[in-house]
Amino acid sequence: MIAPSDLALFEPPVHGRPHQRRFEIRDCADTRADCTSIPLTVASPTLSHSFAPDEPVRCAIVGLGRIFDLNALAYLDNPDARIVALVDPNAVRLEQRGADWPLAARFTSVDELIASAVQVDAVELLLPTTQNEDVVVKCLAQGWHVNLQKPFANDLATARRMSDAAVEHGRHLRVMENYIFYEPLIKLKEIVDSGELGAISGYHLKMVASGRGGWDVPGDAYEWRFEQSRRGRGVLVFDDGWHKLSTALWLFGPVREVRAWIGATEVIPGVSVDAPSTIIWEHENGVRGVWDITFAVDLYLRSDYYTNDERWEVTGRRGFARVNRCTGRGIQEPSLELYLDGEMRSYHALNDDWADSFRSSGRHWIDVLRHGQGELRWSHTEALEVLRFALAAYQSDVEGGRGVNPQDIQL
Q1: Are the C-beta atoms of residues 276 and 295 closer than 8 Å to each other?
Q2: For residue 153, what pLDDT band results from cuts at 50, 70 and 90?
Q3: What is the second-level CATH architecture of the domain 57-178+359-377?
Q4: DSSP 197
Q5: CATH code given to domain 182-354+389-398
Q6: Cβ distance 22 to 385 under 8 Å?
């Protein structure tokens, strides 16, 4: 069982003395000198049920929209897990998805699932952010572990109530982050941590969202996101942006100051996209990051998924490393490039299919459940810090770009 103290906020870093904290910190006398990574762990609940070697995790999937196609990949040809139930209020969608998973029971609500005799160990919740709390609390109360889609919540109070429920019932509550399972980004982190680039001088993210190309998305998936935008939680900064803020914390650890200028571009009367926007921040280790967000409504971008042109670049004193794409496939460059000592190294053979990051993330979750230990990536405590990061950006924007410490964001 997690103690309430596990939900405490970050304590200030103490150089030379490793201690339990979320994410990874760097211990340096000079914050821009070469650093040694200190891997740190996050406490997990003690599981009341351990799985026999030949016993699969019984999973229910709640929400069968567009992103289901990617989350379900973790269960294909996987003897360690079995989908035992599908839940969606849309009868047509339920029938369509059920045809691919004929052994799974079908329900139109979580309450129906709870009232049934179906035995469940864990649930995948693929729901609009505003629906998370009610369903998460119900599932945890049943003794089910929960793998939740990002964003965790719109505010800290809602997120904290879900965290408290996980602690109370001694169950895993995970907010999945597939980007940290994307192979080019994993390789980027390996390069950063190896010290090849020298001391890190800066970190830059660029994202261009386009209005043409990509897969078809059901209308109801846009409806709730537009409603989120009206509430001040935009699709680029908050929804998709959750991934970008997560990768920053994953690469360089806690953030001590955020400054943001969040713009708006009207796409249809009454509905705006939160771009152009710029967010800058400084990590506790002194590394500074910049995230530039642009919306090019008439730009065509080839993509099997969403039409985002995304780039990550880390610059050190000796060179730089750059991830050239993720979701979209615009310019056909190598997915990762490393420039060092006058030479450019290109990585052509990395698995750069965005869908595979979902498969890897989901299988990692199943593996954690089966063995009862391991880093969740993200646990609910880590996800709280991603949420603080995002809310600090919004607070800064409201205050004209003033620097905001994420830890100053209150319930």
Answers
A1: yes
A2: very high
A3: 3-Layer(aba) Sandwich (3.40)
A4: T
A5: 3.30.360.10
A6: yes
